[in-house]
Amino acid sequence: MTIELMIPARRKDLGGFEVGRVLPWTKRRMVGPFIFFDHMGPVNFPPQVPRKTDVRPHPHIGLSTITYLYDGEIVHRDSVGFHQTIRPGEVNWMTAGSGISHSERFDSIREQGGSMHGIQAWVALPESVEETAPGFVHFDANQLPSHTDKGLSIKVIAGSAYGLTSPVTTHSPLFYVHLELDAGRTTDVCGGYSERAVYVAKGSVRIEGEQYDAGQMAVLSPGAMPGITAIEPSIVMLLGGEAVGPRHIWWNFVSSSKDRIEQAKADWKAGRIKLPVGDDREFIPLPEDPPPAAQPM
User: What are the protein's UniProt keywords (predicted)?
Assistant: First the structure.
């Protein structure tokens, strides 16, 4: 069997716009180290979009966040001191480690209006580096390895795939790839990893005779090497890697230890996690148990 299961994106209202939440899911918490996967948009914001649409300062531990856009732009600020606007095809990779806070705001879109479309993913850190120092890196679109062929575009965001290796430093074996296929174009799914998934961000594709539409993730069986054929012009994300072991997730905190999550909750409530530099006048309070849907940024 090629496809282990299909995970549908579930719509979640974040107060200003909706996202499609794919991971975690009740029947599949992780794919490799990927523990969280949100599809943002596509959505068109009018000029003067309310500030409630922004993701106010909030904390993370034990993970790396990856923001990747197809359209629009987001302004990132964090407690380490980084201030970086991300645009389509670029990568913002933030490692929370022992603790970081950040905000994601729609400053330019607020002024002019515009579209937003992208993916927010979280990668759980291996236990040996869960408490690493927090950090942030940004890569422009032309810094990521890519390959184009007739009707096919491949960009490797992180890890190695299709003979290409991203400059993004990862803490465990993983891969994350952006594919664009014209209608009728076929390509194989890359191998070399024990856990892999195919997510359709736009359009429709066929895998082993089954159709998958935008908002659906196909988790592949171990060792399966199916082809992906675009039924219409499509954007597909490939992701996965090697498992890092079970993880607890509470709100924006990820850890192998429940006690560590309780400590992070206490630290945020007591103000012991620094707020983002240049964006420290508001924050998202610690929610009551049970927590609401995790912040996507």
Answer: Iron, Metal-binding
- For the annotated binding site, the residues are 58, 60, 102, 104
* pTM of the shown model: 0.95
pLDDT of the residue at 88: 97
Which pLDDT belongs to residue 290?
62
Structural domain boundaries of the chain?
A: 3-241
| Known binding residues for Fe cation | 58, 60, 102, 104
Q: Provide the CATH topology of domain 3-241.
A: Jelly Rolls (2.60.120)
- DSSP 8-state secondary structure symbol assigned to residue 266: H
H helix intervals, the chain: 107-112, 258-269
Distance, CA of 74 to CA of 223 (rounded, Å):
37
User: What are the tokens at 114?
Assistant: 């515009």
pLDDT tens figures, 58-81: 999 999 999 999 999 999 999 999
Give the contacts of 251 (CB within 8 A, at least 6 positions apart). 265, 286, 287, 291, 292, 294, 295
